[in-house]
Structures are given as C-alpha cells and as structure tokens.
Specification:
- The protein has helices spanning 27-38, 93-97, 116-135, 139-162; strands at residues 2-9, 16-21, 24-26, 46-52, 70-72, 76-83.
- The strands form 2 sheets. A 4-stranded mixed beta sheet has the order 2-1-6-4, with helices on one face. A two-stranded antiparallel ribbon has the order 3-5.
- With 163 residues, the chain is an alpha+beta fold.
- Strand 1 and strand 2 (16-21) form a beta hairpin.
C-alpha cells in the first residue's frame, strides 16, 4: 500500500508529494526524502524544519522537532530551510548521511492532548520498532519489522481513540 505526505516550502504555491509504504513516516525519513527530492545538496549550509500545515496558530507551535515522531499519511506539512548556525555546520547533513536517532526527546507537542506518560510509552514503542527495522539484515526481517512497527502504531492509535 503506497501512502503519501504532501509538503511545500513557504515560497511554493503547489505542494509536492513524498510517497512511502505504511501508515506513517518518521520526521527523519520525511526530511531525508524532501532533501533528496528537492536536490538541496549535502546539508552543510542549512537546517531543515518541518511544520504542520494548520493555519490557525503560530507556526513555531506546530514544528515537528522530534525526528522519531511519526507523521500520518495524507498529512500536509510546510518545509522550511533555515541558515546553518555556523558556516559549514548545517544540521541537515544528518539526514543526508542517514544516521537516524535512536532515542526520542520524550517532550509532548503542544497540540497533543495525551499525558506525557502515554507519549513516552508510545515513543519508546516506535523507537524500538525503528531500531528493530534498522537492525534487520535480510529482506524478510525488514518486512516483518515494518509490519510489527505498523501493528504497534495501530494498537497505540486504537488505545488513544478509546480514551
């Protein structure tokens, strides 16, 4: 099943699409795909920020600042390219190299209603699933790890909806 997330830079009129398999994509993978599709280079001269495209609030409140956060399919986001804090030391190089973070920040986003304990548990489950996916050696192991990750995400979503 092919899913997609729509993104656009603030200066663009029409959004572009990142396609992936599954029900969601991590912020890390989305940033990596945006950099590749947009041909932004090696990432040494810029930072890349992703924001939820919800036009009613201050954009800083809607930033996806944790790379392990899963963005659901069919979501629209705004990508923003910012200058590097120091010349030649842009944070986007991490996305180009493919070194994904293992641990989440465990900080709840402003628009989440759930408690921090629930966020911590779901983040740990997602982190474990991503770690399992990264450690898989054969194609079959990778497929099984992906299915396990999606099943865990679905269980967490069902638990949140039941509250």
């Amino acid at each position: 099943m092919s899913s997609s997330v729509h993104f656009k830079f603030k200066s663009q009129k029409e959004p572009s699409r990142v396609t992936f398999d599954g029900t969601g994509i991590s912020v890390f993978e989305l940033k990596r795909e945006i950099i590749n599709q947009s041909r932004l280079g090696d990432g040494t001269d810029f930072e890349l920020s992703i924001y939820n495209e919800d036009t009613g609030e201050d954009i800083r409140d809607l930033e996806y600042d944790d790379d392990t956060t899963i963005i659901p399919r069919s979501t629209s986001v705004i990508a923003r390219r910012l200058p590097a804090s120091r010349p030649g030391k842009g944070g986007a190089t991490r996305y180009v190299s493919g070194k994904m973070p293992i641990n989440a920040r465990n900080a709840p986003r402003n628009d989440q209603v759930s408690s921090s304990r629930t966020v911590s548990n779901s983040t740990n489950t997602v982190s474990n699933g991503v770690l399992e996916l990264n450690n898989a050696q054969t194609e079959e192991e990778k497929i099984n790890a992906l299915f396990n990750l999606q099943a865990n995400q679905w269980k967490e979503q069902q638990q949140e909806m039941a509250k």
